[in-house]
Amino acid sequence: MAKNEISFILPKPDSDIPIYRQIYETIRRGILSGEFGSQARLPASRLLAKQLGVSRMTVINAYEQLFAEGYLSGKPGSGTFVAAQLPEEFLQIPKAADAKTGVEPPKRRLSFSAYGTRIADDSTAILSASGPTAFVPFQHGVTAIDKFPFDIWAKIAAKHLHSPRKGIFGYDDPAGHWPLREAIAAHLRTARAVNCDADQVLILNGAQQAFDLAAKIFLDEKASVLVEDPCHAGAKRSFESVGAKVVAVPIDSEGFDIGRAPKNTGAKLVYVTPSHQFPMGVTMSLSRRLALLEWAQVSNAWIVEDDYDSEFRYAGRPLASLQGLDKNNRVIYVGTFSKTIFPALRIGHVVVPKDLVSVFTAGRALNGGNSPTVDQAILAEFITEGHFARHVRRMRKLYEERQALLLDQLHKYIPSLRVEKMDAGMHLVGWLDHARDAREIAAKARDAGLKVTPLSTYAVRKIEPDGLILGYAGVSEKQIREGVKKLARIL
Ligand SMILES: Cc1ncc(COP(=O)(O)O)c(C=O)c1O
Fold it and tell me: Treating both helix axes as pointing N-terminal to C-terminal, what angle do 438-447 and 477-490 enclose, rounded to 10 degrees?
């Protein structure tokens, strides 16, 4: 039976364990074993001290520890009691199912906000597009990890970690680590003709966070947003998550055409990939760019320019960004290091017009605070010391060679697949005959250890014929040769 006297404590003065700790342990054990029942009254500290022959302070120290950990409750002067609910009970991890009986805990009715309901309803699709990368042929969107200069990266990292500066170990500006913002601004001005100062550059956890912020900042429920069709799924899903109405505008060989967008949608946001349309690979023509910028100005709308893999252009002169052409500060320019360094870094950036800096920074502060500052500091130095530009130059050459090899192998072994050289990017599109089912081929390819993605995965309207997205940047020469032969057998 539970009791509420503590008469058995015999502190051992010669023990290594301090006396207050012995008292604490004895009472804690008594509570957990049920010897001191729930809400049992403990003796006053003065009384217990006298009983045990120790100082009152020693007993108070033991009680305070037990209070702090949640074993005791009560107020000074009104008594000390065993807590009604013990910390151990809170710490119990509920079992998902009783292993012996296989009984599942009862299902609960879950209710969410409108946002929660939308992402819960769409969770299968959202999660199937997320998750760990399979480094198999022809996974698209991954970099040549084995060619990354990890030795240089590690040296810079060691420098920051061995002689740490306080500045990079506290919370940082939610807009990002200043040296990285400066390094990116300088790079974008020269490499992409982006018109910006460092204070317009915000560091994010990948481009995906830019789409999510833009959705939350600009789109109310039922507001229209124009997207390319087919379109990068991550951006489209962020817009859908806030309840916006996604209006798909078909693209052609000149890319997105604002002239083909339905009239009177009242859209205040448009999402485009002008340098290298994802996933079709076309480049938006100059006349279409100018028309889009003009429309944005007249419509008081914003353009999200996703410049995800523009560093990899293999023909002609490098193309300037859409943002660089904009005279009216209508473009929100998004970039990512997922395609130039590696996706696991989870560092991307957004360049916003000056009058949007504070709203985006506030949104960023509420959306994860800031990106890991140590990684930002390493990346800043990697850029300013010239390693980034060198790595991109080397990868541009390598990816161009890999694309040429993939084309050659496809022409040789799968002549029925229509595929053409692309001037930019990290993937090719292989067009199937009308009769072929891209999803069935993708499933068979998966069983054979390949990853090919049906183009229709990204399409809003039906695509006919369908195609296969074939990534080559992160696929070695040997894998390309073997992978094409496997794919030939499937096709
Ligand atoms: C069109 C497009 N934009 C952006 C991204 C990059 O997103 P993140 O920087 O979040 O990795 C991808 C990645 O696959 C993409 O395909």
Answer: 120
Amino acid at 438: A
Is residue 348 in contact with ligand 1, taking CB distance under 6 Å? yes
pLDDT band at 93 (very low <50, low <70, confident <90, very high): low
The b/e string for 6-21 (b: 16+ C-beta within 10 A; e otherwise) is beebebeeeeeeebbb
CA nearest ligand 1 atom 16, residue: 232
Max avg pLDDT among 11-25, 130-144, 224-238: 224-238
pLDDT digits 0-9 by tens, 113-169: 999 999 999 998 899 888 888 889 999 999 999 999 999 999 999 999 998 788 889
Is 343 touching ligand 1 by the criterion CB < 6 Å?
Answer: yes
Q: Which amino acid is at 86?
A: L
Q: Is the CB of 141 under 6 A from ligand 1?
A: yes
Ligand 1 pocket, residue 281 CB under 6 Å: no
Ligand 1 atom nearest residue 141's Cα:
14
Q: Residue 403: CB within 6 Å of ligand 1?
A: no
Place of tokens 């992978």: 483
Question: Residue 269: which of 227, 306, 311, 235 has the closest Cα?
Answer: 227
Alpha helices in 14-131 (DSSP H): 19-32, 45-52, 56-68, 87-91, 114-121, 123-128
Report how far ligand 1's centroid is from the alpha carbon of 368 (Å).
19
- Check: CB of residue 333 under 8 Å from CB of residue 293: no
Residue 49 has pLDDT above 60, yes or no: yes
Q: What pLDDT band is residue 91 in, cutting at 50, 70 and 90?
A: low
Distance CA 72, CA 27 (A): 10
How many angstroms is it from 308 CA to the middle of ligand 1?
Answer: 6
H runs (alpha helix) in 367-432: 373-384, 387-413
Entry pTM: 0.83
Q: How far is CA 81 from CA 56, 62, 84, 86, in A?
A: 18, 14, 9, 12
Instruction: Supply the DSSP symbol for 339.
Output: T
Backbone φ/ψ region at 163: left (φ over 0), alpha (ψ -120 to 50), beta: beta
Name the closest-CA residue to atom 13, ligand 1: 141
Residue 150, Cβ neighbours under 10 Å: how many?
12
The pLDDT of residue 95 is: 58
